[in-house]
């Protein structure tokens, strides 16, 4: 019977429960069902909606899930890590449906005893980014939910968007959502704006309000988020590739033997202290930031435009520190 009770706001009447139990081979009177529900209510997060007849029973919206067999430690670990790392990658309806399981998973791990060494796994594994850590901006949860729903259902959006340092927010009345991409601590909505050509990237933390419209979003069949990312958009690039030739100190470039810049990369020793690299990479600001971050551990040879950019930047830096 517990399996037949839906999670709020859905509900089921005693009559429906009797019919469904009967169809499963359980011949039971309604009075017995009512009595059992009252007793189970003391143990499980069950609620009754008595506003209208027939009254309806539900699992509490935020109550821990109940399933048979019980949730094992491996499943609990998996759900706990999904809860920690996938919040921004799941549609709202899916996230709502999983929250009770996340709660149950946390309880299962907290109650694990004996030889359940997996209980300590979450304290033994971490993921760190190879750069200066930054705090995530605050995203309006209601707006994020609306944006994700519109993306899932391919509906247009009306967004109230505050540009950086703008005193007054801008209203976009015809936003066609294409994808959501998380880059570091920032979440971007990739979209097209009515009356404008090309894709735009809108950071979600700048969305003040969002409304899903009744009109369907216009999505080109040939749009691919993977191709869009490969174009260098999220490296804030100009588009296209360049052939990078550079000399690295061994200390700064040796990791490229194991984590190459590209599939066509060639890397070899010049002497005991220097490496020569040739690789095809995206022409982007991210590339320049990475090269500058290596300081005097790299010298760009070609392309000439990139070498000149590095030279001018380092000269300005040197003048600042004189």
Structure, described:
With 322 residues, the chain is of the alpha+beta class. It has helices at 14-23, 30-40, 73-85, 92-111, 141-153, 225-230, 250-253, 285-293, 304-320, and strands at 46-49, 56-59, 155-161, 170-183, 186-193, 200-203, 207-216, 237-249, 266-269, 274-284, 298-302. The chain has a five-stranded antiparallel beta sheet with strand order 6-5-4-3-7, with helices on one face. A four-stranded antiparallel beta sheet has the order 9-10-8-11. Helix 3 packs across helix 4 (92-111). The protein is elongated and about 85 Å long. It starts with 13 loop residues before the first helix and ends with a helix. The model has no long low-confidence stretch (mean pLDDT 87).
Report a brief summary of the structure.
It contains nine helices and eleven strands. It has helices at residues 14-23, 30-40, 73-85, 92-111, 141-153, 225-230, 250-253, 285-293, 304-320, and strands spanning 46-49, 56-59, 155-161, 170-183, 186-193, 200-203, 207-216, 237-249, 266-269, 274-284, 298-302. A hairpin with a 2-residue loop joins strand 4 (170-183) and strand 5.
């Amino acid at each position: 019977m517990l399996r037949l009770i839906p999670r709020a706001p859905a509900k089921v009447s005693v009559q429906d429960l009797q019919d469904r139990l009967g169809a499963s081979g359980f011949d039971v009177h309604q009075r017995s069902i009512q009595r059992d529900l009252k007793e189970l209510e003391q143990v499980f997060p069950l609620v009754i909606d008595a506003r209208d007849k027939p009254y309806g029973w539900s699992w509490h919206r935020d109550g821990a899930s109940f399933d048979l067999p019980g949730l094992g430690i491996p499943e609990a670990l998996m759900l706990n890590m999904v809860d920690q790392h996938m919040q921004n990658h799941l549609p709202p309806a899916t996230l709502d449906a999983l929250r009770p399981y996340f709660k149950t998973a946390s309880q299962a791990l907290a109650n694990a005893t004996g030889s359940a060494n997996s209980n300590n796994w979450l304290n033994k594994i971490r993921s760190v980014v190879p750069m200066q850590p930054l705090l995530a901006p605050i995203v309006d949860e209601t707006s994020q939910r609306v944006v994700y729903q519109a993306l899932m259902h391919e509906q247009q959006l009306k967004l109230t968007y505050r540009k950086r340092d703008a005193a007054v927010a801008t209203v976009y009345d015809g936003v066609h959502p294409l994808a959501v991409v998380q880059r570091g601590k920032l979440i971007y909505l990739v979209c097209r704006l009515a009356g404008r050509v090309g894709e735009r990237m809108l950071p979600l933390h700048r969305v003040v309000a969002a409304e899903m419209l009744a009109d369907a979003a216009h999505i080109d069949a040939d749009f691919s988020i993977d191709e869009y990312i490969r174009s260098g958009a999220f490296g804030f690039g100009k588009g296209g590739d360049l052939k990078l030739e550079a000399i690295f100190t061994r200390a700064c470039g040796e990791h490229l033997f194991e984590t190459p810049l590209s599939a066509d990369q060639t890397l070899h020793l010049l002497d005991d202290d220097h490496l020569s690299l040739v690789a095809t990479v995206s022409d982007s600001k991210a590339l320049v930031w990475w090269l500058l971050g290596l300081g005097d551990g790299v010298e760009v040879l070609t392309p000439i435009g990139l070498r000149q950019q590095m030279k001018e930047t380092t000269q300005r830096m040197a003048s600042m520190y004189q």
